[in-house]
Amino acid sequence: MSNRRYNRVLLKISGDCFSDFELLKRVADQLIKARADGARLAVVMGGGNILRGRDTRDMDQAAADKAGMLATVINGIKLTELLGARARVRHVSAIGVPGTAAGYDIWQAREALKEGRILVLSGGTGNPFFSTDSAAALRAAELGMDVLLKGTRVCGVYSADPEKNPHAKLYPRLSYEQALVERLAVMDLTAFALCMERKIPIVVFDIARSGVILDIIKGKRIGSLVC
């Protein structure tokens, strides 16, 4: 089943991807190919392979979240290195790290996209108590992206956790309202509400599937589309 081609794409990947170098390399290869084909691209990454703020019980939550933001900067450096040898890349962070990642500025980020650079966006939103899902939704809105692609460990949005319930039903397409009413784990509520308000479609898919990012950008219906 075909879908429309996406020209401006924000990809959200979890920190878990950075624990698997071969997977991360495949993601980078697809981004480089998509950019060569004319797509405008930005990537928001998690930092859970290093530290998850919500799992740090012995720290104040705000401090733990700040540490988690720094973890995403480390992952941003790694992704930038993978991409930089073969594509024009700009790594910016919501928490600027001089000499490593410039501070995020919406106007400069928009200009970098116009120049054809792949944007690597680390540091979350720059504020505690917000997830990297929220950062992805916020940047997608600010940068005028056509779609938010969320790479996960499963094939899409299910009626229940498919890793726990073998009878869980996959939804190829669903509305924002259905996802809310059924309390489906698409994204955290802050991120989801922003996508719904700005009418940014969300595609949830298995990041490990071969060529999946390129296929979705080209218009193949893969995973679950929330719109």
Please tell me about this protein's structure.
The structure is a single chain. This protein is an alpha/beta fold and 227 residues long. It has a domain of 153 residues: 3-Layer(aba) Sandwich (Carbamate kinase). The strands form 2 sheets. Strands 4-3-5-2-1-6-10-11-9 form a 9-stranded mixed beta sheet, sandwiched between helices. It has a two-stranded antiparallel sheet with strand order 7-8. Strand 1, helix 1 and strand 2 form a beta-alpha-beta unit. Helix 1 packs parallel to helix 7 and helix 4 packs parallel to helix 6. The radius of gyration is 17 Å and the shape is globular. The two termini are 16 Å apart. The mean pLDDT is 92.
Oligomer: single chain
Low-confidence stretches: none
Dominant shape: globular
| N-to-C CA distance | 16 Å
Main-sheet strand order equals: 4-3-5-2-1-6-10-11-9
CATH superfamily of the domain at 8-149 and 211-221: Acetylglutamate kinase-like
- C-alpha Rg (nearest Å): 17 Å
State the helicity in percent bands.
25-40%
Content of β-strand: 15-25%
CATH architecture designation of the domain at 8-149 and 211-221: 3-Layer(aba) Sandwich
What is the class of the domain at 8-149 and 211-221 in the CATH system? Alpha Beta
Class computed from helices, strands and strand pairing: alpha/beta
Number of DSSP strand runs: 11
